[in-house]
Amino acid sequence: MTDLQSPEASPPSTPHKRPLVVMTNVSKSFSSGTLALSDMSLTVAGGEFVSLLGPSGCGKSTALRIISGLGDVTTGSIDWPSSRINAKGLPEGDISFVFQEPTLMPWQTVFGNVYLPLRLRGVSKAQASDEIMAALETVGLKDFAKAYPRELSGGMKMRVSIARALVTKPKLLLMDEPFAALDEITRQKLNDDVLRLWRETGITVIFVTHSVFESAYLSNRIVVMKARPGRVHADFPLETSLERGPLYRTSEEYRAACEKVSASLLEAMGPGAAMEMH
């Protein structure tokens, strides 16, 4: 496998930081008999931006849901070495999830939507106000606190969803193809916004995508998954000498990164994959 790590090799990590989440030999079978994941192992350290990349149906979203606690493993284990564990066996308040759709409550204002996770924790609106406004300012929507979802563009709705995820100050942000339905210009802008938030906050991000270009732009580490049953095919760092932004998008370095990621994805998909990719 050229310069990529094999599935059996130890995954890259951030040496000076403890692992945040560790998946060990995780398999997932559904009641229909479908084996979605098979013997998948993954270690993510604090501060990493990891993209899970693979073809549709390879188990990327299933893996993310298992990490979040929204799904159970059939075999294997999930460990949280750096977190306090609650009665459900999940890290105490350390995870936030951004779904493919913004999933906003249409009867609530932007402020009310971002308030939701704090309200569920029993925090009063008065106590939460400063944190809500700070989260909205972080995503550039401070002036839209009183607006309703119907008054927002698709990109703005997704920013509200991101603000809602950030308001609890999680250690780990899980993002499941959040920009797939957006136009290319909006998607690029939100990619830049997420990178800025990652740099400024130091949060750990696990980002699911099936886009080679998006993964190569965002990530400092890429995990390529094989087609169902999902498991790790390649796991490698993707560092750059340029700050990721407009200049990087047109650089030879980005082109080479996309080529490297694409080659790994084709390899993971197996014979005939080139005919299926577009």
TrEMBL record:
The organism of origin for this protein: Rhizobium rhizoryzae
Domain annotation ABC transporter: ranges: 21-252
Domain of life of the native organism: Bacteria
Coiled-coil spans in chain: none
Lineage: Bacteria, Pseudomonadati, Pseudomonadota, Alphaproteobacteria, Hyphomicrobiales
Protein name (record): NitT/TauT family transport system ATP-binding protein
InterPro entries named in the record: AAA+_ATPase (IPR003593), ABC_transporter-like_ATP-bd (IPR003439), ABC_transporter-like_CS (IPR017871), ABC_transporter_ATP-bind (IPR050166), P-loop_NTPase (IPR027417)
Record GO terms (molecular function): ATP binding; ATP hydrolysis activity
One Pfam family of this chain: ABC_tran
PROSITE patterns per record: ABC_TRANSPORTER_1, ABC_TRANSPORTER_2
Record has Ribosomal protein as a keyword: no
Sorted UniProt keywords: ATP-binding, Nucleotide-binding, Transport
Keyword Protein transport recorded: no
Protein family membership: Belongs to the ABC transporter superfamily.
